[in-house]
Amino acid sequence: MENEVDITPPLPPWEKTFMERLQDAGYYTGAVGKIHMIRPKGYHETALTGGKGVRWTQARGQNIGPAPLGQKYAAWLEKKHPGGYEEIYEQRRKPEYHQDKTAIVNVLPEEEYVEYWIAEEAKNFLRKRKESSRPFLLWVGFCGPHGPFDPPKRYAEMYSPANMPLPKTFSPERYKNPEQEIKTLKKVIAYYYAMMTCIDDRVGSIIDELKKNGQRENTIIVFTSDHGEMLGDKNRFGKGCFYEPV
């Protein structure tokens, strides 16, 4: 059962998270975006998304539809762009979206991309805490640069696939069509960089909000990640191995 990620059991109720310990110390805590706690513990308020990757069941050939990006994002998107959620749903149902090396331009306008919503929710949290002297913790989890690699159009055009360097450990001769594999990998790398740039910009907008609210000087910012991405190293993609890039 543990191998089926869609039904992995939640954290036991008796386990105390560091967010709960911060609450005990007087902190007001919030989380926006993607977190891996099935039942969030230790937050006074949340605005969460689901993941953007293909489900374990889909990877095994059982096409049960796209991974959800979460009800709150879907509701926001439907209000901002009626039919928008259906557009990304239909894009995710395309066969090419379910491949390990998916590189495709997101169908939504840039300002409706999920990373924008996450950043806006983070800024909303900061605005509400602006007048409070109570310390806070805000967990911001972006969905990218996780595969499938689907940056907004402007970011997708920032990096030319032709200029992307290949990993030193990538061996195209192992494939039946080496030229096509090289072309595919270069596009994946370019779109990976595009997604990172998009997230960098969103992080910058959050930091700007801290400065605007007079919160930057007494706020500690911690950057962390749950895993890396093979991105063609040793001819592998994703996170399901024990090599150093992951």
From TrEMBL:
InterPro entries: Alkaline_phosphatase_core_sf, Sulfatase_N. GO terms for cellular component: cytoplasm. Keywords: Hydrolase, Metal-binding. Gene3D superfamilies: Alkaline Phosphatase, subunit A (3.40.720.10). GO terms for molecular function: metal ion binding; sulfuric ester hydrolase activity. Residues 9-235 form the Sulfatase N-terminal domain. SUPFAM superfamilies: Alkaline phosphatase-like. It holds the Pfam family Sulfatase. The keyword Metal-binding applies. This is Sulfatase N-terminal domain-containing protein. It comes from marine sediment metagenome.
